[in-house]
Every structure is written in C-alpha cells, then in structure tokens.
Specification:
The protein is mostly helical and 146 residues long. The protein has 7 helices and no strands. Helix 6 crosses helix 7.
Length: 146
C-alpha cells in the first residue's frame, strides 16, 4: 500500500510533522487509520528540559513546511473552525505566562528526580517554546512567504 500510495515526503529534513503529513495523504487514499487513546510510546533516551526545548524550537522549519502542504492547511482550517473565542485564548495565554513567571524559581526541579505534575512541565515547556516558535513560524510562513 505504501509503495503505491506514497512514502514519507522527503521535503521534511528532520523528524517532525512528516508522520502526520504521511497519515493525511494515506487516509485520503483509503487507508483506515485507527486511534487508540490507551497506546503509549516510550523513547528510551534522556532529554533534559533544555534539550527538549531546543529540539522543539529546531522543528520550526518542519512546521513551516507542514503548514504549506495540504495536510497543514486542512489542520489549520479545522483548528479555526473549532477554536474558542480569541479573547479566551488571549486570557489563557496571559494566565499561563504569569504562572510560568511565578513558578520560575522552581525551574531547577524540572530535571531533578522529584516527580512533578504534568501540568508543571507543560506550563514551562509552553512558556519556553511556544511564544518564540509560533510567532516566528507564522510570520515566516504567512506574512513573509518565500
């Protein structure tokens, strides 16, 4: 099926978004994709919090490419269709940003052996990567396309 309907798009130079784009193309060709919310994937590789943030910021080029392709355009349309009001998103960003600033002294705990709630990691990850990454990506992709 893969050989006749398509393989990974070689335009993607890093391992980011290429799997989503392939799944989109294959589902359009009739492949039935199943989602299992109980499935868990493990990567046995240690990443410090800073390493994970650097990797995420490095995925910007792949994200820009993805949103120029049909799968990315479809994803953006779906997100716009389902999105909450802009005032709510702005308020949520403000609250999350304030939370990250208030908790900043605890950032050293991120790579410690002390287990922390997942929300704590997500908040710091978002505050570290999202503002820069998405602002730069959308500006490059939509405001100043090459």
């Amino acid at each position: 099926f893969l050989r006749t309907c398509g393989l990974f798009d070689e335009d993607f130079k890093s391992a980011a978004f290429e799997d989503i784009e392939l799944g989109f193309r294959l589902s359009k060709k009739g492949l039935r994709l199943l989602y299992n919310p109980a499935a868990i994937g493990y990567h046995y590789q240690f990443f410090s919090f800073e390493d994970a943030c650097r990797k995420e910021l490095g995925n910007t080029a792949a994200a820009q490419l993805f949103f120029k392709k049909e799968a990315g355009q479809h994803m953006l349309q779906e997100a716009q269709r389902r999105n909450s009001p802009s005032w709510f998103r702005g308020a949520a960003r403000f609250v999350a940003g304030m939370g990250a600033r208030i908790l900043r002294p605890m950032r050293t705990l991120l790579d410690s052996s002390i287990p922390l709630p997942g929300t704590f990691y997500r908040l710091f990850f978002w505050a570290t990567t999202t503002k820069t990454k998405w602002r730069d990506m959308f500006a490059t992709t939509f405001l100043h396309p090459k």
